[in-house]
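Appendix B. Chain record.
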Amino acid sequence: MSNQTIRWGILGCASIAKRSVIPGIQKSRFNEVKAIASRSLETAKETAEQLNIPQAYGSYEELLADPELDAIYIPLPNHLHKEWTIAAAKAGKHVLCEKPIALNYEEALEMAAVAKQAGVIVAEAFMYRYHPRYAQIKQLIADGAIGELRLIRGCFTFNNGDSTENVRFVKEWGGGSLYDVGCYPISAARYLIGQEPIAATMHALFSEKHGGVDMMASGLVEFPDDLTLVFDCGMWATFRNSLEIVGTKGRIELPHAFLGKNEQEANYFLYTDAGVEEIQAEHLDSYALQADAIAQAIYGEQPLPFPLEDAAANMKVLEACLTSAEQKARITIQ
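Structure tokens predicted for this chain:
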């Protein structure tokens, strides 16, 4: 690895950036956070001081014009992902953009085309899958530890239903539970199965109290070979984030599939006829691992594990799920 670190700029002061992504980048091996921008210079300066970031800017344009920055992290609301990812790519910056990558599949394709033309890396911020336990689980499945794969069951819910103002409640901005947390079990199933879905059937609770967005959604996503993801997601239910992988001879259970707070919560369980095995998984900062994987890809030392084409494919499934919920119909994914 090069002795030079990747120098990051943060485009926005969202809570996910301050709480998790910035500390993760700062803890990583090959990266450093050099600047942060907000539409309010005062907000940018306050955040920079809190998180020990050297430079603060009062506009996104100033951040992108900084020649000392190599990469940009974008934690903006969903409807701004395309605009600012493209702007960063055209400025010659590599990009880590929050999930979902865009509002729809066509936007994701446009972003991919610009990134390719600019010769930059654009990654979607699904930090959980950079933890080595997911590669280990995929290998367990390939080795036949649970027999033939039959079903994946997942959930990701939390409750902010009492909130009166939230960007997640604006339909035109890509609000709703499917885009916010349903994208996690979908991405996990696609990774573990290793194939792309062929259809989706969803039911959702669209709440007028919350801007008409899907506050809860549940359903199934069909994969080739008669494999299925059954999942639910929501922003108006108690907190859950689990994954169960079911085979003909056993199952793997992740009680904390996407977010874990401590050492114990990284562990997962293998159930077979021989009994239950708790598999120890090191408690690592997935945000730091994500940043280091991007840095290594930038330096050409290894390919990005999840390129922008993967983000576009996930967007296609998400779009089908939302359409299915709105139309109350099974939607084929082309």
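Further analysis of this model is presented in Appendix C.
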